[in-house]
Amino acid sequence: MTRPSRTRVAVVGGGQNCEHAVSLASAAAVADALDPTVYDVVRLTIGEDGTWHDGARVLPLGDAVAVLQSCAAVLPVVHGPRGEDGSLAALCELAGVAYVGSGVGAGALAMDKWATKLVAGALGIATAPGLLLTATSAATYAFTHPVVVKPVAAGSSHGVTLVREAAELAAALDAALALDDRVLVEDVVVGREIDVAVLGTADGARVVSPALEIVVDGWFDFDAKYGGGADFRIPAALDDVARTDLEQAALAVYDALGCAGVARVDFFVTEHGPVLNEVNTMPGFTEQSQVPKMFAAAGLSYADLLDRLVRDVLPA
Which residues does Mg(2+) 1 bind (predicted)? Predict the structure, then answer.
């Protein structure tokens, strides 16, 4: 009996940004979880210097594109700028290769926290009051009350600082400007941190995951996210009205940005309703990450979630 041929897929990890190590972990987990009887997995890595690698072999960009074109689909598991921001989607589009996840426009909009705020505002979805600063305008910004300072386009809480007093402001602005030439300064929102994932399907339907609440003693920073200091509670304890409000807001933002595949939509839930924090079109994707845990709670295993994402983009 002839064994059915396996589907060749590329998993791309790494990247040229501060989320390089997190992306490596996500990509390794994704590649390991794809069923080896179904998929022939090619593992590609983008170095912090932008160099592409196939294992130990360095690939010129043209050769890397050729490898991508030899695959039926690409899983671009690169978080942050020059990856999640639509860059890899654009490369796949130009190469004519099917890929998992959001397209160029959605990736770029969602990565840009200021643009996401504008989209949410047009939808009537609340966000934290805030303003956009550049290096020039940051020099004259005066502290008046506690704020959160963050780069406009970065993830994993890199460059994000809770500024409680004036003496902390300059260092916070410097940290954010080191990662981006635009900075978002937002009022502190008091509420529960609750995330919802949305999974788009090939037929246009969207599936909303159970909500996940992040419970942490203090600030949900990089160490809390990846050092085991946060407790994820799934499903989050919500009444029917609050859960419906969250799900409808998540779907509205997902659709307005033009997302595809899976996206994580992060909220603060306050006494006045949900407040959008940010949208991640390529969230952390190890089996212990938020999105896989949310869908596992709904009965969709990590391996099955990945299989579904790939199958939905394969050519008919």
Answer: 266, 278
- Binding-site sequence positions for Mg(2+): 266, 278, 280
Active site (catalytic) residues = 19, 156, 289
pLDDT tens profile 217-251: 755 444 444 445 689 999 999 999 999 999 999 99
Q: Which residue has the tokens 């845990």?
A: 293
Low-confidence winner among 24-33, 199-208, 224-233, 239-248 (lowest mean pLDDT): 224-233
Q: Strand pairing partners for 197?
A: 264
Query: Could you tell me which residues are annotated as the binding site?
Result: 266, 278, 280
- CA dist 125 and 307 (Å) reads 33
All domains in the chain, ordered by first residue: 7-99 (3.40.50.20), 108-127+190-305 (3.30.470.20), 130-187 (3.30.1490.20)
Helix (H, G, I), strand (E, B) or coil at 162: strand
Strand bridging mode 73-76 / 7-14: parallel
Distance CA 61, CA 210 (A): 40
